[in-house]
């Protein structure tokens, strides 16, 4: 029994050492993508954890919370090499390709007064208690207020006071990433204008169902 405990203790020690080695590799990589040392340390940590879990199960019928499977080191090396080199064997640059996703969605405002009221409430939630929130005075300002309250997510505009119309989303391969400093704050066109070398991959059209259309659509399913 003593030897059994010693084997378990040694297996656990290997997990701890592998975890320390993995952490050291992660720190040294400083967020680099596809770092070889991090990958090797990950495989070692995974396999040490798997071995300890298997040994604990065999000896005492107990398990760890680690849901891992053994990784063949040779196969792992081959797969890693394939991910960091190109088809010609040269090093692949993970940042060589830049994708731009652009979205437009239009809304109808059934009641301006109702929208301004909702936006006033959203602004009030953002303003500190010791400050006074001024009134929202326009439809555009109201929509911007809702977006700010929702951290820029379009889902924050899913309110009864805004009736969604058609929209679209495009995916484009671009040569250069967006440089916000190149455009004035009031320029709403420049940042969305495709460059001469940009390649449109495709677009998704949005046709939202209106309440009466949803009822008709549901009726056709019966």
Strand content: 5-15%
Q: For the largest beta sheet, what order do the strands appear in spatially? A: 1-2-3
The run of helices and strands is: HHHEHHEEH
Task: Please report the distance between the alpha carbons of the first and last residues.
Answer: 69 Å
| Helix content bin | 40-55%
Count of β-strands: 3
**Total domains:** 2
Give the low-pLDDT segments: 217-222
- Shape category: elongated
Q: What structural class should be given to the helix and strand makeup?
A: alpha+beta
Total helices: the number is 6
| Major sheet summary line | 3 strands, antiparallel
Radius of gyration: 28 Å
Mean pLDDT: 82
Would you write up a description of this structure?
With 222 residues, the protein is of the alpha+beta class. It folds into 2 domains: 2-84, no CATH class; 98-220, no CATH class. Helices cover 45% and strands 14% of the residues. It has 6 helices and 3 strands. Strands 1-2-3 form a 3-stranded antiparallel β-sheet, with no helix packed on it. The longest helix has 28 residues, at 2-29. Residues 217-222 have low confidence and may be disordered.
What's a concise summary of this model?
The chain has about 220 residues and is an alpha+beta fold. It contains 6 helices and 3 strands.
Q: What are the SSEs and their pairings?
A:
Blueprint: H1 2-29, H2 36-60, H3 73-84, E1 98-108, H4 112-126, H5 139-149, E2 163-174, E3 199-206, H6 211-220
Antiparallel strand pairs: 1-2, 2-3
Helix pairs in contact: 1-2, 2-3, 4-5
Provide key terms for this protein.
single chain; about 220 residues; alpha+beta; 2 domains; three-stranded antiparallel β-sheet; 6 helices; elongated; disordered C terminus
């Amino acid at each position: 029994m003593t030897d059994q405990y010693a084997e378990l203790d040694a297996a656990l020690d290997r997990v701890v050492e592998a975890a320390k080695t993995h952490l050291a590799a992660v720190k040294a990589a400083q967020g680099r993508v596809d770092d070889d040392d991090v990958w090797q340390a990950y495989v070692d940590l995974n396999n040490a954890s798997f071995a300890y879990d298997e040994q604990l199960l065999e000896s005492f019928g107990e398990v760890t919370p680690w849901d891992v499977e053994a990784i063949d080191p040779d196969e792992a090396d081959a797969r890693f090499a394939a991910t960091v080199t190109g088809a010609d064997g040269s090093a692949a640059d993970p940042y060589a390709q830049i994708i731009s996703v652009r979205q437009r969605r239009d809304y109808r405002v059934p009641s301006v007064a109702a929208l301004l009221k909702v936006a006033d409430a959203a602004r009030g939630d953002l303003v500190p208690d010791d400050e006074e929130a001024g009134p929202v005075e326009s439809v555009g300002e109201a929509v911007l207020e809702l977006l700010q309250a929702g951290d820029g997510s379009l889902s924050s505009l899913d309110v009864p006071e805004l009736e969604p119309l058609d929209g679209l989303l495009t995916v484009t391969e671009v040569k250069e990433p967006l440089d916000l400093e190149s455009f004035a704050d009031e320029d709403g066109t420049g940042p969305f204008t495709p460059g001469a070398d940009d390649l449109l991959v495709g677009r998704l059209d949005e046709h939202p169902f209106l309440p009466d259309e949803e009822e008709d659509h549901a009726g056709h399913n019966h």
